[in-house]
């Protein structure tokens, strides 16, 4: 029997319970932990019962591990100085997974030369978990082919702050929309901050980093197709659902399976997983993240393929811009803004 993969984690203290359960569920061995909070590495590591790591760049470049999980990367990824540690980790065979999008803006992506060279720094860190790589979407792969073109799509990605930020959920939702339908012509979005109340109307910034609250978005395509997104890190529980409408009916994909219903209301196909009787249910967030890490560490699992970070970040930032202007905005506009930086 092979030894469990060794993992170091970067996290906030309030994420310790989640991270501990994920490490256990994925069959990993935790060997170190640090925190983006100044002076908080010791407390974060103590919460997990491991040694403290004080510098993320040094840990990526030098730590004796097989995997680095960035549950809360903080400002990491905002500087071009972060590219070298990523490539150093990759050269040593260390896999890197992040619960947050890195980089966090299209401008950071363009300025930092993330997509230059071979290997590319952007390919050294994997955003997780991806909905399209989840077990439910893998089980529905053949059904998706038979279902045909998606006319209308509704995506919901929600979680608690310990499981990721609104920025992570928005990035995840837009990645799924882009995978299923491509880039929209315009996005019309609204944002509600977590402390919103009478007389208080918070607006999001220009980055996915440290973004919290709720966001809704309507996406319009030039050929008449449509999509909508609900993303939040204030929902109290993890959930990812997608509803696809098309000429062949309705296909809904959940955390635990899928259901395809024809236009006449008949069930065409379905698959729903159930837990073992008498066993304690594993929270969906723990299961989703642990599965993603296990697949990342398993050479036989198959590569998820590169993400189109530019398209996903431009879609996400178009939504943030729309929430600030109260007008429909285009990902193409963000792309042009980035090109003149």
Strand-helix topology:
Blueprint: E1 6-10, H1 16-25, E2 29-34, H2 41-48, H3 56-62, E3 67-70, H4 83-91, E4 95-98, H5 106-111, E5 125-127, H6 135-139, H7 141-147, E6 152-158, H8 166-181, E7 186-192, E8 214-220, E9 226-232, E10 239-246, E11 249-254, E12 257-261, E13 267-272, H9 284-297, H10 309-325, H11 331-339
Parallel strand pairs: 1-2, 1-3, 3-4, 4-5, 6-9
Antiparallel strand pairs: 6-10, 7-8, 8-9, 10-11, 11-12, 12-13
Account of the protein in words:
By secondary structure, the protein is an alpha/beta fold. Helices cover 32% and strands 22% of the residues. It contains eleven helices and 13 strands. Strands 7-8-9-6-10-11-12-13 form an eight-stranded mixed β-sheet. A five-stranded parallel β-sheet has the order 2-1-3-4-5, with helices on both faces. Helix 4 links the parallel strand 3 and strand 4. Helix 1 crosses helix 9, helix 3 packs parallel to helix 4 and helix 10 crosses helix 11. It is globular and about 60 Å long.
For the largest sheet, list the strands in their spatial order. Answer: 7-8-9-6-10-11-12-13
Cα Rg: 20 Å
Q: Which band does the percent of strand residues land in? A: 15-25%
Class inferred from helices and paired strands: alpha/beta
Low-confidence stretches: none
Mean pLDDT reading: 93
Q: What is the tally of helical segments?
A: 11
Taking the alpha carbons of the first and last residues, their distance comes to 52 Å
């Amino acid at each position: 029997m092979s030894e469990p993969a060794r993992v170091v984690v970067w996290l906030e203290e309030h994420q310790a319970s989640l991270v501990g359960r994920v490490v256990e569920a994925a069959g990993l061995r935790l060997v170190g932990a640090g925190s983006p909070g100044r002076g908080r590495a010791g407390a974060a590591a103590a919460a997990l019962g491991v040694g403290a790591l004080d510098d993320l760049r040094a840990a990526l470049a030098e730590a004796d591990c097989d995997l680095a999980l960035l549950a809360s990367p903080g400002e990491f990824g905002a500087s071009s100085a972060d590219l070298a540690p990523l490539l150093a980790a990759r050269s040593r065979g260390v896999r890197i997974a992040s619960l947050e999008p890195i980089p966090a803006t299209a401008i950071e992506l363009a300025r930092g030369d993330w997509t230059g060279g071979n290997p590319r720094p952007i390919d050294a860190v994997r955003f997780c978990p991806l909905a399209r790589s989840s077990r439910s979407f893998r089980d529905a792969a053949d059904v998706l082919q038979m279902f045909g073109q998606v006319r209308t799509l509704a995506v919901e990605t929600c979680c608690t702050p310990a499981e990721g930020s609104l920025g992570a959920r928005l990035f995840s939702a837009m990645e799924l929309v882009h995978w299923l339908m491509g880039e929209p012509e315009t996005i019309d979005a609204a944002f509600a901050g977590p402390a919103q109340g009478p007389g208080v109307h918070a607006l999001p910034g220009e980055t996915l980093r440290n973004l919290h609250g709720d966001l809704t978005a309507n996406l319009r395509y030039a050929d008449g197709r449509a999509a909508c997104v609900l993303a939040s890190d204030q929902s109290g529980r993890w959930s990812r659902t997608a509803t696809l409408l098309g000429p062949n009916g309705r296909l809904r994909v959940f955390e635990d399976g899928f259901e395809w219903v024809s236009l006449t209301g008949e069930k065409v196909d379905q698959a729903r997983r159930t837990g073992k009787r008498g066993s304690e249910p594993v929270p969906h967030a723990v299961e989703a993240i642990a599965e993603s890490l296990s697949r990342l560490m398993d050479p036989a699992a198959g590569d998820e393929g590169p993400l189109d970070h530019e398209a996903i970040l431009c879609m996400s930032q178009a939504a943030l811009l729309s929430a600030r202007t109260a007008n429909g905005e285009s990902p193409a506009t963000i792309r042009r803004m980035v090109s003149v930086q």
